[in-house]
Every structure is written in structure tokens, then in C-alpha cells.
Amino acid sequence: MKSIGIIGAMEEEVAFLKEELTEVTITKKTGLEFYEGFLVGKPVVVVRSGIGKVNAGICTQMLIDLFDIECIINTGIAGSLSNDIEIGDVVVSTDTLQHDFDVTGFGYPLGKIPRMDVLAFEADKKLVESAYTSCKVVNGHIQVHKGRIVSGDVFVSDNERKERIATTFNALCTEMEGAAIGQVAYLNQVPYVVIRAISDKADGSAKVDYPVFAGKAIENSIRLIKEMIRYELPYVNPIRWK
Description:
Layout: E1 3-8, H1 11-19, E2 22-29, E3 32-39, E4 42-48, H2 53-66, E5 69-80, E6 90-98, E7 121-122, H3 125-138, E8 144-151, H4 159-169, E9 173-175, H5 178-188, E10 192-200, H6 206-232
Parallel strand pairs: 1-4, 1-5, 5-10, 6-8, 8-9
Antiparallel strand pairs: 2-3, 3-4, 5-9, 6-7, 6-10
Helix pairs in contact: 1-6, 2-5, 3-6
């Protein structure tokens, strides 16, 4: 039976999902715990990857190797890169890339991984629309946006870096795992989408706003995912990258 893979970097991003699973089986490997069970009647595997791109990449590959995964959803929080995106809003990825990958000295554009045939890793269009529609249904008090999400091994908390990333990549928000998950999903031809609730503005106020608003942002993301899996998700999804 094919399952939906759900990855969150931090325990608080997946704890509520784990609590609502039924018929749970836990598989432990390489310091990770994969919770296999049913969420709102659908088979899922929920796992906390740990923070950062390396942790996220390892976790994603293990998820694919150990389980029959139909698609991957990355849930969590992020910093806004746009004045139009407020704390608590949700961003659904259209694609992802690594903002801190720099081989410009060899003539590559910033973010480009040499010998990869794409600059950014496109999210599955059906999953994107499913997440967007679900958020509209259950989070009517906030805005939901579709666009590029960028990742790097840095917590962005100053205006200069924020503006540089936003301008260079035309991205809506920044976090620390999504592009690594996107790269592994792309290489394995597994559909994926990144869903991020905004916890801060990725500027000088981020260190203050993050601990205050992270919990509420996570609640918005969890509501969306449950709705998405219950009603909107294209569960038997034949689409693969060509």
C-alpha cells in the first residue's frame, strides 16, 4: 500500500500529526523514527528529519528507500521574504532551490548545482493546487501564497541578507530544508511539495518574533495538511518527472 510521506524538521512541526495517527508502527534507523500509520484514514509515514539540508536530504532518501512512498509533503515554518506575506500566512512551493549554494567562481548562476540539469526543483503541480485549496478551506483567516521557497543552512535574521536573497531568487520565503527534500525527490522521481507557515519576517525582528509566533504558524500548517490528506490530495498520483 502506497503511503504519503510527511517530513518536518523539528518535533513541534510533526508532534500533533504523530498524536493523531492510528495503527502506528515505528521504524528506527540512523537516529530517525519513522511513524507509519493512518491519518484521517489515509496511510502516511511521519518523520522528524532534524534541522538543515544534510539532515533533510538523508531523511528523505531513507523515507523513499524504506517505504512505498507515493508523494512527499514537507511541513514547517519559514521566514517571509516579501512585504506582502505576513506572520501566520502560508506559502506553498512552486519550486525550491538552495540560496547558499555558490559555484559562481566557475560561471554558474548562484544556487545552481553543477551537473544537475535544473536550477530549481519543481514541485508537483497537483500537490501544489491541493495544498493551496486546502489552506483556503481551513485557514480562511490568513493568506496563502504560491511561489518559490529557498533553503540554506542559515537562519536569516538581518535585512541585508533578506533583501539579497529575495532579489536574487525572486523567492517568497526562506527556510533550511525544503530544497534538499526537493532535490532528493527530484532525483528519485517522487512528487513533492513544501508547505511553510510564516513565523517571522527574516529580518532584524526574527529572533524576537520566531519564538512568539512559531506555534501559531505550525497550527495553521497542521490544519492544512489534515484537510489536504482528507479531501484534496491526489492520492493515487501517476505523475512523475520526465
